[in-house]
């Protein structure tokens, strides 16, 4: 996905009705020794980092339960859409654990430190509507008969992104992600570097030409 230039947006969805991702299999985990658990969680954390580092926008379509590592997967995505009936939470403390695949870092960056601490300390589950009200998800939608309302909304969102200049979108994502980790002056420098990379692109010239000629732009990602 990272190297395929035809990929413009990645949507994560589940094939299991009512469940986005229920997290780790604790029965499987119980058979592991301490070293195996540490290795497993490290690999899982690395996977989430790989997803977060994908250059194109990513959208999690949460049509059911997103618990523990399942919510950490959604948090590794750029955007999240949830059915109002979906349930999500970092429930690790209810099982004698703490989030280990990015949850302690990505949740506070998403909803703020105070609320993230409350949700992690209590292991509370919230529904899609509550998640939207606190900014955990971008959109909450009523579930449909097929059970894929969030996925359908995610596709609509993806289709809004698709017509835009691919390289500009990638640079925008990079500038946001890198800039959020530093002070604003450093962030401005990062934005400047990303913008400089976009200046020589054909798509920038196409965007200007399309504006002058009053027609839709035809971006190629070059």
TrEMBL record:
Cellular component aspect of the GO annotation: mitochondrion
Cross-referenced Gene3D superfamilies: 2-enoyl-CoA Hydratase, Chain A, domain 1, Lyase 2-enoyl-coa Hydratase, Chain A, domain 2
Molecular functions per Gene Ontology: enoyl-CoA hydratase activity
Keyword Cell cycle: no
Transmembrane segments: none
Cleaved signal peptide residues: none
Source organism superkingdom: Eukaryota
Gene Ontology BP terms: fatty acid beta-oxidation
CDD domains cross-referenced by the UniProt entry: crotonase-like
Keywords on record: Lyase
Keyword rRNA processing: no
InterPro entries: ClpP/crotonase-like_dom_sf, Enoyl-CoA_hyd/isom_CS, Enoyl-CoA_hydra/iso, Enoyl-CoA_hydra_C
Family, per entry: Belongs to the enoyl-CoA hydratase/isomerase family.
Protein name: Enoyl-CoA hydratase domain-containing protein 2, mitochondrial
Organism: Buceros rhinoceros silvestris
Species lineage: Eukaryota, Metazoa, Chordata, Craniata, Vertebrata
């Amino acid at each position: 996905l990272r190297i395929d230039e035809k990929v413009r947006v990645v949507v994560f969805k589940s094939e299991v009705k009512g469940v986005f991702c229920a997290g780790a299999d604790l029965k499987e985990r119980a058979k592991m020794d301490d070293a195996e658990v540490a290795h497993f969680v490290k690999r899982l954390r690395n996977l989430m980092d790989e997803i977060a580092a994908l250059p194109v926008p990513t959208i999690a379509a949460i049509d059911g339960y997103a618990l523990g590592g399942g919510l950490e997967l959604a948090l590794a995505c750029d955007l999240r859409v949830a059915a109002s009936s979906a349930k999500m939470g970092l429930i690790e403390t209810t099982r004698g654990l703490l989030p280990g695949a990015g949850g302690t870092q990505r949740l506070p960056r998403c909803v703020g430190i105070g609320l993230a601490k409350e949700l992690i300390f209590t292991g509370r589950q919230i529904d899609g509507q509550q998640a939207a009200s606190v900014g955990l998800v971008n959109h909450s939608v009523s579930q449909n008969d097929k059970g894929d309302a969030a996925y359908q909304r995610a596709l609509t969102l993806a289709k809004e992104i698709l017509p835009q200049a691919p390289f500009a979108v990638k640079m925008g994502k990079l500038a946001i992600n890198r800039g959020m980790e530093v002070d604003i002056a450093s962030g401005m420098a990062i934005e400047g570097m990303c913008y400089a990379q976009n200046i020589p692109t054909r798509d920038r010239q196409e965007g200007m030409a399309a504006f002058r000629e009053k027609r839709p732009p035809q971006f190629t990602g070059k």
